[in-house]
Amino acid sequence: MVEFREILLQVLIACLPAFLFPLLYEKSSRIPQRKVRKTCHTAYSMGLIYTCTSSMLLCSLFPSYVWSGIPINFGILPLFALMLYGKLREGIILAVLYLLLYPLYAMRFTFLEFLLETGLFLYPFVLLTANYFKRIGRRGKVAVLTVIFAVGELVITVSPYIFEEMKVELGSIVTIIANILVSVLAGSLFVHIIETTMEKEKLREQVIHLSRKYFREAETLQQMMDAAPLSITLLDQKGGLCRSTIHLCNFIV
Questions:
Q1: How far is CA 82 from CA 48, 149, 175, 248, 250, in A?
Q2: Helix or strand or coil: residue 124?
Q3: How much is the pLDDT for 33?
Q4: CA gap 104, 102 in Å, rounded
Q5: By mean pLDDT, which of 30-39, 88-97, 153-162 is the weakest?
Q6: Measured between alpha carbons, how far is 48 from 240 in angstroms, rounded to an integer?
Q7: 50 and 28 in contact (C-beta within 8 Å)?
Q8: Is the distance from CB of 101 to CB of 59 less than 8 angstroms?
């Protein structure tokens, strides 16, 4: 049970960006509409940077080794999420920070273990996939993110069996499978929440744009009616007076 408790703790920390991103992005969207287009992408990037960096740091500060050597560290999940959703520079900076933190929790610091337990060999592939990832639909993003998460966690969890003569126990096999399944679920959760948040924000901006457009057209129509030398009256559905020109008001008076 201790092993699964450690996995659960790491998963909750790794999924913090998925839960905190909507809150941060919603706050950043409460700015005047004229400034939204200029700052929307910046707020989106900063929200991902803050949440993914915090999650990655917490995962690296609370790692664990179960079954005499299987590393449990899900910090690679927010790292890959930022690489795919964020800018290239942001992904590289967070990757360097993640690599610098590795000696703090590594049991044995060797180059091959460093290469596998940090997933370093996957970084170029993830960064090169980022542009394609941003263009595909939600289902494609779920597939790409879950595969990358699963491969990264698989490499990390089986790394002790590559370099050491460890016995393959039933508990260790269950732990490895649980890590992979959790990575798949985390990938789906990341994409679902982030994409849903972005879609809601787009709909909100469209509603605001249509509302502003309606009021501008209504104001233009009123100005045309006031300037025209005609007596025009607009009635609502109940037959009540809705709008009228100044000429008609002057005529009635």
A1: 7, 12, 26, 63, 65
A2: helix
A3: 46
A4: 5
A5: 30-39
A6: 52
A7: no
A8: no
**Beta bridge partner(s), residue 241:** 235
- Return the bridge partners of 70, or none: 66
Closest by Cα among 80, 78, 73, 91 to 10: 73
What percent of the chain has pLDDT above 70?
Answer: 74
DSSP classification of residue 122: G
- CB count within 10 Å of CB 106 equals 17
Whether 115 contacts 121, CB under 8 Å = yes
In this predicted model, what pLDDT tens digit does every residue of 89-144 receive, in sequence order? Answer: 888 999 999 988 888 777 777 788 888 888 888 899 999 998 999 888 888 888 88
Largest CA distance in the chain: 101
Distance CA 57, CA 74 (A): 10
- CA angle, residues 147, 150, 151, in degrees to nearest 5: 85
Long-range pairs, 58-66, Cβ under 8 A, ≥24: 58/13, 58/16, 59/10, 59/13, 59/14, 60/98, 60/101, 60/102, 60/104, 60/105, 61/105, 62/9, 62/10, 62/13, 63/10, 63/105, 64/6, 64/10, 65/107, 66/2, 66/3, 66/6, 66/172, 66/175
8 Å CB contact between 148 and 122: yes
HSE, side-chain direction, 13 A CA sphere, residue 72 = 26
- 141 or 25, greater pLDDT: 141
- Beta-ladder partners of 233: 244
